[in-house]
Structures are given as C-alpha cells and as structure tokens.
Amino acid sequence: MINKTIKLNNNLLYFLIVICSTLSILVGYNYRIDMDKDKTEPGFMGSKPFLNDGTLCKAGSDDSLCIKDILDDFSANQRNILFLGNSQTGAVNDFSIDDINYVTIIKNQFYKNSNPKKIKGIWFPNANIIEFEKINLLLKACNINIELLIIPVFLDDMRDYSVRNKIKEYSENNCFSNNLSEKNKPLKFGNLVISNNKIKSKIFIFSKLENLNKYFRLDLYKFRNWIFNIKPESIRKLRPAAYKSNINALKNILKNRNINSQRTIVYIPPLLNYESKKKIPYDRKEYKKFKTDIENLCKEYFCDFYNLETLVPDQFWGFKSSTSLFSEEKEIDFMHFTAKGHQIMATKFLEILYKYKN
Hints:
This protein starts with a helix and ends in a 5-residue tail after the last helix. It folds into 2 domains: about 1-35; about 45-355, SGNH hydrolase (Rossmann fold). The chain contains 11 helices and 10 strands. The longest helix is centred in the N-terminal third of the chain and has 34 residues, at about 1-35. It has helices at about 1-35, 65-75, 85-90, 100-110, 130-140, 165-170, 190-200, 205-230, 240-260, 285-300, 340-355, and strands at about 50, 55-60, 80-85, 90, 120-125, 150, 265-270, 305, 315-320, 330-335. The radius of gyration is 23 Å and the shape is globular. The strands form 3 sheets. The protein has a 6-stranded parallel beta sheet with strand order 2-5-3-6-7-8, sandwiched between helices. A two-stranded antiparallel ribbon has the order 1-4. The chain has a two-stranded antiparallel ribbon with strand order 9-10. Helix 5 runs parallel beside helix 9 (about 240-260), helix 7 (about 190-200) crosses helix 8 and helix 9 packs parallel to helix 10 (about 285-300).
C-alpha cells in the first residue's frame, strides 16, 4: 500500500513538473515574441499588410465582420467588380504611412470620374484557387452578382490544396445570417467555434496559444530552411496533386460564372527577376507550361487572360527579413513590391477596366 502511494505521488510530481515546465516555456517564448521589436506578422516577413479600409478586406482576419461588410456594400443595382488576391494585393514592401493598395487606388479613381461601378477587394496570405472557389461559393450563397471577378494565379500558391478553417467558416455560414442587410447582425458560427472563442477570452494561456502557434510555426519554417539551405530563389517544384486540384477549382469558378454570363479576368501576376532573366523560384519549363495551361483554360471557359509577369520592374520590389533561423541578412522578396508597384498595378488595371465600360 505504501509503495502504491509513493508511486502515485511520484507520478503526480512528474505530471506537475511537466505542466510547470511547459507553461514556463510558453511564457518565456511569448515574452521573447513580445520583446522582439523587429518581429513581423508570420507570412509577411518584412512587408506590411494594409488595414481593412472598406475597399480591401483581409479574409479570415480577426475583424470577422470585414468580409460581410464588403459583400453587404455590393448592391444588386450596381455594377460590382471584385478583386481576389493574396498578400501581393494586401501588403506592401518598404511601407510608408501614406501607401495605398492598388485596389483602393482604382476605386478612388473611379469615384473621381463618377463611375457607377462598385470596386472591392478580398485577400488573404498564400491564397490558393481552392480557397478562391470557397469565396465564390459564398458570393453565390449571398446572391451577390459580381459583374467582373478578377483572379490572380500564382504558381507558388498552387502547390497547396488545403483550405484554412476560417475560410471554411465563411462558406459554411449560409451567407453569415438570414438577412445580409442587417449590418449589425453577428456572424453565425458553429457551437465549437463559439466555445473556442469563449475559452480563449477567459483563460489567459489559451488566448496566447494561437499567437504562440503562429510564431512557433514561423521558427520551424526558418529551421527547415536553415537545415536544407532553402533560399528565396530556391526552385519550388510543382506538386502534381495540388496543381490539378487548383486547376479544377479554377474551372469550377469559371463554369459557375459562365452560367450567369458573368465576366472573369484571370491574370499571371508580376514576378521579380523574370524580365531581367535573373533567378526566379520556379523551374522555367514548369513555369512556362503553367502559363500555357492558364491561358488555354481561359480560351476554353471564356475568361479574359492577361500576363502581367513583367509589369513591375525589379527596382520596385524590396527585401524581407531572413527566412533562415540563424541569419540576420535581408533577403529578396519575390512576393511583395513597393508602393510604386501598387501604383503601376493600378494604372494597368484602370487601362484594362475602362474596356469594360459597357
């Protein structure tokens, strides 16, 4: 009996030591994050995301009503234009306080010219086409008529076919509520999501876990890059299964929009170093085939195809924090250009959009 009691006490002591050690590590790691003055939000690494401004919305952000407000602002009697994008749309390199994203620049120009079309943008980091399809299904559920939908297709993002939970929530929420025009009506989330939010709001350590998880995954990502000597210009090979799933998702979007005679622009986004023939993070043969696949898809499903890979000159891109764990050197940023790049994008799309006046 005494031996059993001692064994039980030892197990309990061991359990308490593990719990206390884990909590100490979490608190210490959180302190390091809070004290790191140069920390950036994971996924941006030195570029800065734009704030939700009523025109551009980061889907899946903490501002959960942002996407609802964007869609609610679209009107059935207006000619609605929606830009989808990843962080190239929603972030800027070498940020200054007056920088404006290209979607907002376009909207402001249309407003100056008294153009009746309503322009909005929805973006999220590393967005793949399967997630864009979820957004398109949300538009359909909300009976939102998008006269012109603009979709960038990044080869790098087609290496992934997972759908993040917050994007799933949008598509599963039956257009957020039964009446979209009730602006102050909260989103209808499932019981699991509601319970999770309550726990995080009441227990300090759980409220920190999501933030810790983001930065821990970032450090793991840096550790992997250090171990395998992965650099920004390292070639990202195609993943056939993910590529095929993204191609099928794009087909589904185009088929769905063709049924309703809605127009779609699909474009190859600007790519640093392509025109100057310096290193790019793709196998050039695979990249060439990818562009041909997207162009042929537009021919088959009647979308308007634009190749903008050389639009933003090399000098209007920037650098980012090191993506290797033990390096402090700045690295080339192949995804985010500067405010000048956003101005160039806006000018090009204004030229394109003026063709859609009728």
